[in-house]
Give the backbone structure.
Amino acid sequence: MSVLQIAGGRPLSGIVRVQGAKNSALPIMAAAVLAEGISVIENCPKLSDTDVTIRILRYIGCEVWQDGDCLYIDSSKPIIPEIPDSLMGEMRSSVVFLGAILARAGEARLSTPGGCELGPRPIDLHISALRTLGTEIDDSGGRLVCKTAGLVGGRIDFPNPSVGATENAMLAATRAEGVTVITNAAKEPEIEDLQSFLQKTGALVAGAGTSQIRIRGTGAAHGARHRVIPDRIAACTWLAACASAGGEVKLYDTEPRHYLSVIHSLHEMGCSIEAGEGMVTIKRKDTLRAPRPIITNPYPAFPTDAQPPLMAAALKAEGTTVFVENIFENRYRHAEEMKRMGADIKTEGKTAIVCGVRKLKGAVVKAADLRGGAALAVAALGAEGVSEIRGLNHIDRGYESIETALAELGAEVQRI
Ligand code: UD1
């Protein structure tokens, strides 16, 4: 089992390319099931989550091959409308295959993804959306057995915006007869990216990026070529790394307008940030100050996935930083590990209170989830001495090679 060793306490200096967005690539790969032909997904990040998705695609009968960062998916043959439990269990976001398989085959059988490291992850909104479109769903015994005699467009009004449920509803609606209107839809940039891929395959979808999405069902779609947007959470992680360690870092192939809320908080902390076309430069020379409360909420508010890395950056900020986590129940597991480095954090329910300390010291810590794990690396960069981060399998789900990116930024880091 490999670990990440980081010798912290020295400023960063370097330039790094931001990978393609994991949370765009996964639903687009599922959407390729509906595009009967060959789809080419450019800028596809090489992650363990994309590997699992490739294995799912192959299992259901698609041919998949890679050339550099291009992923080719040939979904022209009939598909097997089933995902085995072993593959479903490896990645919660595999639930986005539900809408795609159902729309393609008229049936879908998979296991319910269940809870995960961030607390309970219900899929009631996915199920009710698909029922609205005319699907019979038996969700007893940890399995989802879905069948439709033909999807029919309808009005789906989400009580709260869910990224995955919006994606599933969009995918299914592209094959439903008539018009589907999704209200209170998630507005994340990854939803817009999915719309953009679907449009290229011939689907009639509009409104993504706003809270109302309209889809007119069509027949079979065709393969398309699409470039995945840059990963906004990876970008926020590298910015937080510079805020934690100090120095000057430049990111390219990034889309700063997708993470303005995070840039805003880093600016309040005293970082100077210049954002331009496809690039961002961050400088942190002096001691950081605590920013105003960081409150996670659906896009365009502060993203829950950027909360852990920003907490890592705030550990040494002068004053008290308040975090309020409104999306997931169990998203402060990194806090206990950060305390091993000398951080002063109190958590209660949705709130975490970080009192800035003068120094952090390297420690042996363990990642419990993807972004929490990356946050430990960010904290380690600002800590004096050597840290060892275990549980790298979590980090590898979402970062192409965290040690390479951090080394490009001048960090002393190695995977052992
Ligand atoms: C996606 C992202 C994840 C991110 C999250 C929130 C992917 C692969 N993952 O996850 O990185 O942290 O958005 O931005 O894109 N909910 C329900 N019922 C449902 C579905 C969701 O109550 O059926 C709740 C969830 O428990 C959570 C909230 O809705 O409190 C938002 O979750 P959702 O947007 O669905 O997250 P994911 O799509 O799983």
About this structure: The first strand starts at residue 4 and ends at 8. The pocket of uridine-diphosphate-N-acetylglucosamine is lined by residues 23, 26, 93, 121-126, 160, 162-165, 186, 190, 304-305, 327-328 (CB under 6 Å).
